[in-house]
User: Fold this.
Amino acid sequence: MALNSSMNDALWIRQKAVEHTALFRNSIPLIASENLMSPLTKEMVISDFNNRYAEGLPGHRYYQGNKIVDEMETRVEELVKKLFRSKQADVRPISGTNANQALVFAFLNPGETILTPSLDSGAHISSAQFGAVGMRGCNIKNMAFDTVNMRVDVDGTRKAILAEKPKVVLFGFSVFLFPAPIKELKETIDEVGSTIWYDGAHVLGLIAGGKFQDPLREGADVISGSTHKTFPGPQHGVILGNTDDEKWKKVRRGVFPGVISNHHIGAMAGLGVTAAEMMDYGESYASAIIENAKTLGGELYSRGFNVLAEKNGFTESHTLLIDVKKQGGGKHVAEELEKNFIILNKNMIPGDSNTKAQDPSGIRIGTQEATRIGMGKSEMSHIADLMDRALKGNNVKDEVIELKKGFQEVRYCYGKERGYDFIELYR
Assistant:
């Protein structure tokens, strides 16, 4: 029987999924905002949880059929609080940006001032004028930034806090190389009565592993985050709290009904599985991520790449930021490497204006996914060599594919050695 056009369309889409999977099976993954789920986490994401709705909080739903969901959500929340040693947790946001939106609604009214990093110093777009904060109508002021050391300028930012008296101080970056100076600025922030918000989307897994920094103990009121970067879970979001009950009520309302209805229950279950796995594997995983990032930074620097913050060891996280103007700029470099199956992204660096977002001077690299599949220091050296030769006009795609053949298994998660045999729990 001939297929109708609609079925052809469906099968075409399925084929694109097959092709996309093959592309990444053969590629070196260096996007700083991506990762791989464990097999057990994947089961949660495509289980029947994914078909259901659960507005509200456990015990206070607007739908029937949520008894098991309530039990699961309560357990996930407790797991997350235990992992991060947080007083409060909300596991309902469906992405990191969605978590950010909830906190904007919770803590900021139109016209009120927020102090954030600038885009060209590594901030996330949600805190920009054209992002969630700007669209809320907030008055955005920027922290002072040391572009040589790629860190927040403490003295300059202290002056900005005292001058602007912001309602909220946001420490948040999509290029998060070094810890934020929460401890150093806490006294000044308290003096003006600001709420301290830490956007930990990129470094959440490093924090879970006890590396990088400990924002809640250093003075943050709330942490927002996505759960699929250095924290290797499903595409979802989370908010952690160490604040008073009144502020936390505002956070809860900011999440629902503020910015979500149903909260993607399968992904939330996957978040819980990943939190459990990170309790066992988080420290070793975070250590390996950072070691790989430092190694790759050094290997690229030795080959003539202008890896920023060289005097500070390039990074204390999973991320590297590289000025590639002499190699043709970020857009050119990212596209040339993509042709050779090395996947990373173009990125703004200090000095780039907002108009250069699609053709910036830099590239950004993350080591969390390569680490997740078992790559180590020797592979980082090999990757640096492949990048260098590719940008000198050599076709290294076959060498990339050959290297990747040995790294196809997800690590730092539960497997047969822990008694889990990947039996599917559903049809």
